[in-house]
Amino acid sequence: MLAAGAVGQGGHGVVAQGAGHAVADGIASAASGPLWIAAVPALAMLGVVLTTFCAIFRIKSKLPAWLTVACLGGAFATTVGAYLHLQDAGVPLVVKAFTWFDLSWGKGPGQTLHADFAFYIDSLTCLWMLFVTGLATLIGLYASEYMSHDVGTGYCRFFAAFNLFVFSMTCLVMGENLLVLFLGWEGVGLCSYLLIGYFYKKPSAVAAGKKAFIVNRIGDFGLLMGVFLTFVKFGTLSFPELWPMVQPYIDMVKAGHGADVPFTVGLIPVLLMVGAFGKSAQLPLYVWLPDAMEGPTPVSALIHAATMVTAGVYLIARTYPMFLVSEYALPIVGWVGALTALLSATIGMAQFDIKRIMAYSTVSQLGYMFCGLAVLSSAGAAFHVFTHAFFKATLFLCCGAVMHGFAGQLDLRKLSGVGFMKGWGIVALAMLVGCLNLAGFPFTAGFFSKDMIIAESFVTPGPGYQLIGWILLLTAGLTAYYTFRVFFRVFVGPQCYEPGDEVHAHDEHGHEHGHDHGHDHGHDHGHGPETHGSESRATQSRATQSRATQSGATSSHFHPHAPGWAINLVLGTLAISSLAAAGTYLIGDGHGWAADMVHSSSANYVGAAAFLETAGHAEGEHAAHGSFLGMDPHKVMYYVSSIVGVIGIITAFVLHYMGRTTAATSRADALLPAMGPIAKWAQGKWYVDEFYNAVIVLPLRVLSHVFHTIDRLLVDGLVNLAGVLPRFVGSKVRPWQNGLLHGYAVGMAGGLAVLIGAVVLLSM
Amino acid sequence: MTLALLILIPLAFALAVLLAPAERARFIALLGTLVAGVFAVFAVVSFDFGYAANRGQLGMDIDWLPSLGLSVSLGVDSVALWLIVLAALLGPLCVMGSWTAITEHRKMFYAWLLALQAAMTGVFAARDLVLFYICFEFTLIPMFVLIRVFGSTNRKAASVKFFLYTFTGSIIALAGLLYVVWFAARNGTGWTFDIEALTMAAYKMSAGEQSLVLLAMLAGFAVKVPLFPLHTWLPLAHTEAPTAGSVILAGVLLKLGTYGIYRFVLPFAPAAVVEYAPAIAVLCIVGIIYAGLICWVQTDVKKLVAYSSVSHLGFCVLGMVALNTTGLTGSVLYMINHGLSTGALFFLVGFMYERYHTRSMRELGGLASKMPIWGTFMVFFAMASVGLPGLNGFVSEFLCMLGAFQADAAWAGMEASTHGMPGATWGVLGPWFAAVAATGVVIAAMYLLYMVGRMCFGPLIEPAGHHDHHDAHDDGHAHLPPDLTPREIGVLLPLAALCLYLGLQPTPLMKTLEAPINDTVSLVRGSVERPDHNGAAPVHHEPAAGDEEGAGHETDDGHAGADAGEVVE
After folding, report:
1. pTM of the predicted model, to two decimals?
2. Does the first or last residue of chain A, that is N or C, have fewer Cβ atoms within 10 Å of its Cβ?
């Protein structure tokens, strides 16, 4: 698209013209699509049903895994078909499955609440669907081996939830209206809850699942309000009907009357973004994601790295036209993203649990994506989602392979030189590919996608966007450092290891003994008892730790088992895919295939170009040419970010590889005293969990107890008092009924007097 | 005739239960409820949904004391029909659910259970105020007996409190209802207890009279719902009642309160409802949050579910006083959905109690590893209750909140005119009500996941001294396997199927409710749009219900709300 390319080049003069075109044909009206596209969620649902039957008939084989892979593979094939069909059709497709909501209270527009269970397929949807179904198939295959110790009911349960997740996720991205999106949105939350708590006998896993669901619900609250407001304001929830209605406001902004956009319209994106922050683990709602690592690793890879957590990015991209008409929505998104990126990178640098490091890096990278959306590079954001999905899945699955092979060991101080051990070559190579991508090493996919975002933040005028650019650049350096810290410590260097605590635990559920996966070893050092788990957790993890040390002493009996064919196959495929993702940057015009996909959808620049223009007017010359130290960011950023990334990698190399002889220590330890308490605070995750606990959870609990007490004593007490009162009165009144006539006479006279008095008073 | 049979069949079988030997009681009861269920299906089939708002369907009229206007007059519109179906559905499930739990006084138990079903059906089927009130009050007696005789340790206090509390409320409601009768008699209708005739006459009451009538009626119905702060009988009664009692209590008896508000408070005192709606809504919202937070710190699982009813019914009444089609539809759906999901939760708790004889979450935990089927159902119904989209709870909760949210009285001030807000419709609440109430959605997740996390997940905890084979020392109690039996699964499966079906296909049900609800909405709206209360009678009473649909709609445009707002102040 012309407009897209023009903005991408930063040519100001071309923008205005290009924008006109984009507005004209940017939001194409939708056409009715073939019903077979609905097979994508339907096949996932079939997977749920089949695996449930496996559970009912107590299948004790890997059948559920193969059924899952078959169903999801079918879904992927259908998605590819849908993609090709969309290319032919050229306009977004709407596929209606059945009517969900239909309620009318009038015949006018907006007086009907109508929501079909229908799917809206445009290129943005296709982009997401392709990697969701593709990765789900691969990770399902990986899980067939990874979960093999649980064959039986647990295996069925895992794959049923896995399929249900894919169903919900496809509903989320394919939803034709906000309600179907919301169904998928809550559905993925449920599956996330079920899968994080997969090892349900472990209190920490149950607590983590609960935390994820509840924190997400806080976000959903915002999303729900956004849905309500959208309906009240526009009278519809259907995307293809919404776009033309938002168009006048976009034109308004374009004409420089941004201030005239009604408050309610500007409020919608703010409400929607709350939901996005919850699902995509951004400040202040990011705290659930690191804990979510309690789930089995395939789940972490698929749900908590590649797909579900990008739902927030998808939501904003999907409703991008609404964000463009609000003056303050996108800057908020940008700042939240940048701060989250930086904060979680600093935490990631100080952790020892490799899976948690990856979790924090996910939070950080999601921050980049939000920045991308904010700086009007929806293409950059979507491209980063796409590349990130592949390389982060690779990284997680590598961590999972290590965890699987070393009996749950994830502490980088207890593993070293894994890559040189027999049978671990593919894992190490895949890990290297993933790390290079995450670190933004030149010419990797992660490099290109991250670059697009950083460059745009220097180009796009906006409140403090230059500073966002600098923050992102700094974060890129930190990312490179902590990524390679893991690689240099775990995968290369002297070979030594200490197995985790699941050595003897391959019985029924595999986790009878291992109450902790060894996750807690890392941050047990920094601070006191864990607060987000149950009270007993701290003592438990201490107990596990001593057990781990014991098993370390006897580790001569333990032999790490290298991954089998399924894991290796998947890792190889994913590593190659993450490299190949870079290739998509080179095809197509402008910024690659993914960018083209975004540009031909409603997440196009449509108003973005216009936005640039008006903002430019508002802020004068300064804004017209965003620059990076006086140079054109688009050109210079490739070099700058390469240098930053390489510096990060070299730092990690010097600190964590050179001269390291054991697994436990490295030269970085020497620096710790110089950092003072900062390192400790970062290890303690800046005590955000503790803060929330003290400020929100605890007061709420106290309040609940107060309410409970009030309810028993005051509210119910009054009732009981009212119950006692008649008896009391009765016992006092009874003596009067003594049968003495004059007593009754007095009473009667008194009563008459009162009555007459009352009548007289009333008549006056 | 169908309705009469739906009332008489349970009564006849109750008699049969009493006459037959005790060991046959449960079979006869099951047969009776199943026969009633068949007739309920027949009622749905023969109901003419084209005239869903016509309240005379499936009914009959027998003059009783014509000089006093008393008659036995039955008939339903679609709202009442579905509630009768709900009662008929829960009937056989309750009998099946009590199959092994009730070992003593079986005759008494099943006879009262059947009598209760007849009374509940009578409440929904009555077109005559006296008949309604008799049935309404009669439900107290079977329920009292069920709690008093078959309840757990604190049953005496619970039954007395239940009886006296709700009875007191009902008496006050009766005063309000009788005032309407008196007013109607004085204003030309003569002595009549026909609800529709009264609705037409009540319309002429002055604002002050309406307020008094509203407060009196609300006193009775709000206790029944229960609305904060009149809810304290409920946790006690629920906790002490036997499983079937709790299920009926949550599933249908609470709905007598919301149905009463729908059937009497709204039509009899429309102008007063408009005036008091925000205040009632505030009570609902306080209840939602307050009861939700109390749930969160419960250690008795049954009490937790009981308090969750208080929180949930807050949404239901909130939708009701949103006074627009969305809110009212959501409210009526909520009555049905809450009956299904909370009823199921009480069954689950009951099945667990039968095995462990404790409800304390301190003594129980991680039961999913021992009872995986039970655990699966628990998670499922907790999710239905939490309002997960795709299941039934979401539909009604969404509509209730949307109804409050889209009320244009609040939006009128926010934008130049509500013309720019096509989704807004008439109502006196506003977005703030919905926003604050929606925090209840987060709280619901907190307490329900707390419950599931404690009961199902974590390491297995069983009460001290619990043995799987407790039949040795537990005389009379049938031996139950660790996990659910096919019978118990059979109780839960229909409920689960309906939760899923109504979550994905609510529209057919919604469509059947549209006509009567739109009538009620236009009636309430009409009361404030015509400043003089002697205006034309509400549309409501035109016999050809098919034509009514349009009546409320045509006036429904952006302006009306602003005008209405002024009238109401």
Report:
1. 0.87
2. C
